[in-house]
Each structure stands twice: as C-alpha cells, then as structure tokens.
Amino acid sequence: MQISVIIITKNEEENLLKSLPRLSWCDDIVVVDDNSTDKTVEIAESFGCKVQRRTFDGFGTQKQFAVSKTRHPWVLNIDADEVLSDELIEEIKALRLEQVKYSAFAIPVRHVFLDKTFKYGKESRFYHTRLFNKQEGNFNAATVHEKVETKGKTKELNHVILHYSYKNLDHYFRKFNQYTSIGALKLKQQNKSRNLAFCVLAFPIYFTKHFIFYGNILNGRAGFIWSYLNAWYHTVKYLKLYELNQSG
Questions:
Q1: How many domains would you assign to the chain?
Q2: pLDDT digits (tens, 9 = 90+) for 221-236
Q3: 106 and 227 share one domain
Q4: Which of 131, 133, 195, 228 has the most other CB atoms within 10 Å of its CB?
C-alpha cells in the first residue's frame, strides 16, 4: 500500500514532534511550509519529509500545491497538530486501495483539550474527508474551510484522528484574537450586522448551546471550560463586527 501524506505548516516544531512519528509507515510525506522561523523545516527533514517552501495564500490553494507534489494516487491530509490513533493506522493499512470502489474516505476527528479527549461535543461529532484519490478529486480553492471535492463515493472509517488544537490556555488566547478578527471580517464581508444588545446576549446563548445542547457537559471539567471559552469567542467576534460596522 502506498499513500502520500500532505501537511501544511507555519512554526509547528512542537506539533510535528507528535504527528510525524505516527507516519513512519508512509514513504512519501510532503510538508509545505510558510516561511517558518522555528525548527519546523529541520524537524520535518529529519523525519524524511519532502519540504516545499511556499508563502501562504489560503488553505485551499496551499493544499492543492501540496497534492501536486505527491508521488502516489492516494493522499492523506492531516494538520500538523493532529495525531493518528493506533487503531486508525491499522485500519488504513488494512485497506486495499487499488481495489476499493470509493474515491475518498472520511475520518472522525476527536478534539483534545487540556489533556482530555472529547468523546462528545460539536468538535468531535463530524467526519472529515482526509484520505482521497487525487485522480478523482482534490481540494477546492477556498481561503478557509477548504474541502475535498471528488467525483465518486466516500466511505466512513471507524477510528479517529486526535486533534490537539491548543497546548494550553495561553496558546488558546494567542490564537483567540486572530480568529475572532478573521471571523468578524468574514461576517462584515457578508454584510452581516449585530446590535449591541445581541452582543451582550450572545454569551449565555452560546454557553448553553455548547455546554448543554452540544453535549460538552459530558466531557467533564474540560468540557465546561471549552464551552465557556467558545461563548466568549462568539461574544468578542460579534463585538468586533459591531465595531467594524460602527466605524464604516
């Protein structure tokens, strides 16, 4: 079985030390790096990865470029902060990709936060197309929320990818400002608006949604903290949108 792996990076030295050891069974790993200033490139090359340097211009186009540099028809896409579970590795190895009638495989991704693997919650609910035949599909060119689009059918696998989104709360808040600003700008570009009253009411609404309706109450202490932070994220995003609209 021959599978190419693609990973796009920007200062991911710590994450690569977790993710790359789980890919030793793959003989073609393409890392597309966006001008990292840490040891990302050095670490990737030490694991035998083929490193391509390219300035980031969107997730979709960056991954399209990565796919173009792969050697094998079947491509596995993971993020630098994702780790394949033992069970998933064995499940993929058991596939006979030259015989399958599918164009792609969707894999469940489990959110890991404060050392807790979330079995419940919105972030652990969905399947994501991560293994696909590049002769039958590829990523679209979306700047964010890029997707794999294929001609044929997609089959769901049983075992999971572990997603280590944030190392700790300090890391979360370092990303928080960037993500809320991007989210507000995207809403602005869609001509969305929110009044100040909505911004105030957003916090309890979103906390209840994430904690109760999305099931994070079942994820224990980490689920409570995650729900609280998500409610704060939406509140700040809408406040930034309010500010953008007020300023014209």
A1: 2
A2: 999 999 999 999 999 9
A3: no
A4: 131
Give how far the C-alpha of residue 181 lies from the chain's centroid of Cα atoms, to the nearest Å.
Answer: 18
Q: What is the residue whose two structure tokens read 């030259």?
A: 98
Residues 6+ apart with CB under 8 A from 141: 58, 60, 61, 64
**CATH number of the domain bearing residue 33:** 3.90.550.10
Give dist(CA 15, CA 53) in Å, integer.
18
The domain in which residue 145 lies consists of 4-164
Three-class secondary structure of residue 3 per DSSP: coil
Please report the pLDDT score of residue 125 as a whole number: 87
Beta carbons of 92 and 145 less than 8 angstroms apart = no
Q: Which of 164, 191, 219 is the last residue of a domain?
A: 164
Residue 97 pLDDT greater than 90, yes or no: no
Q: What is the mean pLDDT of residues 6-29?
A: 96
Instruction: Supply 15's token pair.
Output: 């994450």
**Residue 81 in tokens:** 């902060």
pTM: 0.86
Whether 4 and 26 have beta carbons less than 8 Å apart is answered as yes
CA 89, distance to chain mean position in Å, is 18
Same domain, 119 and 199: no
- The residue type of 72 is H
Percent residues over pLDDT 90 in the chain: 88
Q: Which pLDDT tens digit goes with each residue over 118-127?
A: 999 998 988 9
